[in-house]
Specification:
- The two termini are 31 Å apart.
- This protein is α/β, with parallel strands linked by helices and 306 residues long.
- The chain has eight helices and twelve strands.
Length: 306
């Protein structure tokens, strides 16, 4: 048997157990219980101290792409950490980003407000190529979203820490590239990992550097954005609109200012999820590889934070 512990307040343990056992029949799937012999953990945002009892752990698999909750912990010894990366997750994220960008590029946000006021107003459509989009972060998800937007006809710039090459996308890197990507965009899409270098990177100065009346979409991590600075920028019109899928506190408290802001769209951290049936083959393969002394699939570099 191969003991594995599962922890998530959001994911379906029974669905994951069924999906994994289809590819790894010898799996001993545990939700809590005896920590003895557990060699793998499949987790999403485990609480502090979670890993202390698991003395035999050889692999941690993160139930998602963002691994900031697993790096720089004091209860997790140096061992391989892998993240999920399946086609379904990529498709869901790309569809969310395309919808959010198009909502602004086609002025659907204005038409929705007119509907609430029962006002019929013709707003002449503009060519998608006239709408400049900057995708900040060109990893597996960000690169796919940037390519999809370019395929639709948008004028797309992408920024990554290191140089990238994506057909149809103007790829930038470095500090000057970051500033240019923010400055030139009609809509900025945040898809960066959360690292010491990116924490709070969209602060008051960054928001002020954006094109007046630009839009912001955050499907990355909440810690990328200074929420108070964003609220101020949205209130005074420096940032026209925001679509937010991630927040400093989740669920978003009922008294949070975002709820009352007409120019903020809120979704409950659902831009992209992993379907167990799609990701289970890779998780099973990572477990097999680590037990053979090999590296898992999609291994994270803790020093970089992704």
């Amino acid at each position: 048997m191969i003991p594995l512990v599962f922890y998530s307040d959001f994911d379906d343990a029974e669905a994951w157990e069924a999906a994994l056992k289809a590819h790894l029949p010898e799996l001993d799937f545990r939700v809590g219980g005896d920590p003895g012999g557990v060699v793998a953990a499949l987790v999403w945002k485990p609480p502090a101290g979670f890993f202390v009892p698991y003395r035999d752990l050889k692999l941690v698999v993160n139930l998602g792409a963002g691994v900031d909750s697993l790096v720089r912990r004091d209860d997790l010894p140096p061992l391989p950490i892998s993240r999920l990366n399946d086609a379904g997750m990529v498709q869901l994220m790309a569809s969310y980003v395309m919808h959010a960008v198009t909502h602004y590029a086609r002025d659907f946000h204005l038409m929705e407000r007119n509907r609430l006021k029962r006002v019929w107003e013709y707003i002449h459509p503009r060519a998608l190529s006239s709408h400049r989009v900057s995708v900040m972060g060109l990893g597996e998800l960000g690169g796919a979203a940037a390519a999809a937007l370019a395929g639709m006809g948008y004028d797309v710039t992408g920024w990554a820490r290191s140089a990238k090459n994506i057909p149809g996308v103007r790829c930038l890197s470095g500090a000057e590239g970051f500033a240019r990507a923010l400055r030139e965009a009609d809509t900025v899409v945040l898809m960066l990992p959360l690292t010491p270098d990116t924490t709070g990177v969209i602060d008051a100065a960054a928001l002020s550097s954006m094109k007046p009346g630009a839009n912001l979409i955050n499907v990355g991590r909440s810690g990328l954005v200074d929420e108070e600075a964003l609220i101020a920028a949205l209130r005074d019109g420096r940032i026209a609109e925001a679509t937010l899928d991630v927040f400093n506190e989740e669920p978003l408290p009922s008294g949070h200012p975002f709820w009352a802001m007409e120019n903020v769209r809120i979704t409950p951290h659902i831009a992209s999820i992993t379907v167990p049936e799609g990701a289970a083959p890779d998780v099973a393969e990572s477990i097999r590889r680590v037990l053979r002394g090999e590296a898992p699939l999609y291994q994270v570099n803790p020093a970089r934070g992704y």
